[in-house]
Design a protein that fits this description.
Oligomer: single chain
InterPro entries: Na/ntran_symport, SNS_sf, YocR/YhdH-like
Pfam families: SNF
CATH topology: Hydantoin permease
Main location: membrane
Strand content: under 5%
Keywords: Membrane, Transmembrane, Transmembrane helix, Transport
Number of domains: 1
Distance between the termini: 48 Å
Organism: Pseudoalteromonas ulvae
Structural class: mainly alpha
Bound molecules: 4-fluoro-L-phenylalanine
Length: 449
């Protein structure tokens, strides 16, 4: 561990932290609902291809820039660009990413707050506290404010402890817990009536839909959100990786785990929709379209849990605990982006910086809660539809065009001398220079049109 900056103490620690950032509500809620509303398995296939062929190379660009810079996102991007225009661009992209991460956290904390209150609700019901249980599922201001604040405080408490004792330690505990809950839930749901129809819809693709522009735009947006790209988060996590580690394989592990969990979450959610349908909860219209994308998690699944009787309470608790844990390991990475910048740029101590930024983000979240109809969707669109693809694209341009090729390859080589003999070595620099910017740009323009 270096004296001033933190560093992940082990390979496993980094993988858990970065996969923790990647695996979140986007995987367990976003991916299955997008799959259900975009033609099932065709979306899954498009997602897999885009995640490995575009998002993974873009993730590598951010990790490499971060590890080379050994600093916050702005300084790391400055280090590979020339003074003048290059440094100005570095500030715009690095700081833009930090603001994007903070804004994502401001809406993510609200949703995570709903997950936490839904985790406690079955306990209140079990304890016979009907009034408390009703309040916990109400859409009241008091509930939203309390749980949003509670979630931000939890995030702040972990981040204030630093890289090794905060981010790494908690990711190593929470990620295995998440896997255990996820697999137990799948084992239960797959034994229920209707589950096999759901499994078929999830796994058998309708090839005619695969090249639909809307489907591709949604799949790429989902892959970017899921791998936390364009937010400076992976630059800063990259900066905490030791020079002895093999970056290419670390990035590959993170991508594989992220895609795997999204895929596995689909094995839970899509069959669960069909189980609910078999039990009389209406999920699909007569034409087979998903009726309520937004209310899936808070209306459809709870209706399913309720229909299960008392075991439903336990399942409901486990499901929302899973969601809350996934959200927490992602939110700590979002907070780390602005905190690391503030600590390094202004020399503030970590504890002060974390509470100050946590406080500012809480204020933004509260503003969204008070103006929900006007702001919630707006902030989501601004950050995930515009901010992330655009900033992710810029990071590829930094790595591919602003940095000299020798420096880029040299950084990749550290920790793995054999990289030179791999296809990655031959293809990636070219890929990051031409293919990624072009494809991401095309999909981005398409999404705006
Ligand atoms: N990857 C997270 C998810 O799938 O839920 C969301 C996320 C985390 C987005 C961190 C952006 C970020 F910086």
């Amino acid at each position: 561990m270096s004296a001033i900056r933190g560093e992940f103490s082990s390979r496993f620690g980094f993988i858990m932290a970065a996969a923790g950032s990647a695996v979140g509500l986007g995987n367990i809620w976003g991916f299955p609902t997008q799959t259900a509303s975009n033609g099932g398995a065709a979306f899954v296939l498009a997602y897999l291809v885009l995640a490995f062929c575009l998002a993974y190379p873009a993730l590598m660009a951010e990790l490499v820039v971060g590890r080379h810079g050994q600093a916050n996102a702005v300084s790391a991007l400055r280090k590979i660009s020339k003074p003048g225009f290059g440094h100005k661009a570095a500030f715009t992209v690095g700081f833009g990413g930090i603001v994007c991460a903070a804004l994502i956290l401001s809406f993510y904390a609200i949703v995570a707050g709903w997950m936490m209150s839904a985790t406690i609700e079955p306990i209140a019901t079990f304890a016979g506290q009907a009034e408390a249980a009703t309040w916990l599922t109400s859409q009241s201001l008091s509930r939203d404010l309390l749980f949003t604040a509670g979630f931000i405080i939890l995030t702040v408490a972990i981040i204030s402890r630093g890289v090794e004792n905060g981010i790494e330690k908690w990711s190593k505990r929470l990620m295995p817990a998440l896997l255990i809950i996820l697999f137990s839930l799948i084992a239960y749901v797959l034994t229920q009536e209707g589950a096999m129809t759901g499994l078929k819809a999830y796994l058998v693709p309708d090839f005619s839909r695969i090249f639909e522009a809307d489907l591709l735009v949604s799949a790429l947006g989902q892959a970017f959100f899921s791998l936390s790209l364009g937010t400076s988060v992976m630059i800063i996590y990259g900066s905490y990786i030791s020079k002895k580690e093999n970056l290419v394989s670390l990035g590959a592990y993170v991508t594989l785990i992220d895609v795997f969990i999204a895929f596995v979450a689909g094995l839970l959610i899509i069959p669960a929709m069909y189980v609910a349908q078999a039990q009389g909860v209406q999920i699909f219209s007569d034409t087979g379209a998903l009726l309520s994308e937004d209310t899936l998690v808070f209306q459809v699944l709870p209706a399913l849990f309720e229909s299960m009787g008392s075991i439903g309470l336990l399942i409901s608790f486990a499901f929302f605990a899973l969601m809350s844990i996934a959200a927490l390991t992602s939110s700590i990475s979002m907070l780390e982006a602005p905190v690391s910048y503030t600590v390094e740029k202004f020399g503030m101590n970590r504890l002060q910086a974390t509470w100050t930024i946590g406080g500012i983000i809480a204020l933004i979240s509260f503003t969204i809660v008070f103006n929900f109809a006007a702001l919630f969707g707006f902030v989501i669109t601004l950050t995930t539809q515009y901010g992330q693809p655009l900033l992710g694209l810029m990071c590829c341009i930094f790595a591919g065009w602003f940095w000299n090729r020798g420096g880029l390859l040299n950084e990749i080589k550290q920790g793995n001398e054999h990289t030179e003999h791999t296809i990655f070595w031959k293809i990636w620099p070219w890929y990051i220079r031409y293919v990624c910017p072009l494809c991401i740009g095309l999909v981005f323009v398409n999404s705006i049109i």
